[in-house]
Amino acid sequence: MNVDYQLEPALSADEFIDVLRRSTLAERRPVEDHERIELMLRNADVIVTARAGKLLVGVSRAITDFSFCTYLSDLAVAVEFQKLGIGRELIVRTHAAAGRATRLLLIAAPKARSYYPHIGMQPHDSCWMLEPV
Which domains does the chain have, with CATH numbers? Predict the structure, then answer.
C-alpha cells in the first residue's frame, strides 16, 4: 500500500473530523463543535497528513515555536491503517517540519500509552494541566 505524506495547512475540518472518528481520538476531541475544530486547525503551526490515494488515513497537528519546543497535540491514524508505521512517520515528519532541535512533547491517549516507548519516545513524569473552564 502506498501512503503519501505532506504538509497540509489548509486541511478541512470535515476531513479532520472524519479521521478522528475513524481512529480512537474522536472520543477526546470536540468533534461535534465544527467551529472549534476549524479554529484548532487554523491555529496549528504544523499539520502533516497521510493519504492512501485521496483518503485521509492519518494526521498530526502540532503547535511549535520552531526553536525550542513542539507540542504534538493530535496524532490520529484510522484504525484499519494502524500498525503500518504511519503514526511513526507522521511524528518524524512533524518533528522535521517544526525543527529537529525542538523537544517534541505529547500527552498520550490512554489506549496509545504503550505505543510511544515502542517508537523510542521517553516518558516524562511531570506534566501539569488546567482543564478548560
Answer: 4-118 (3.40.630.30)
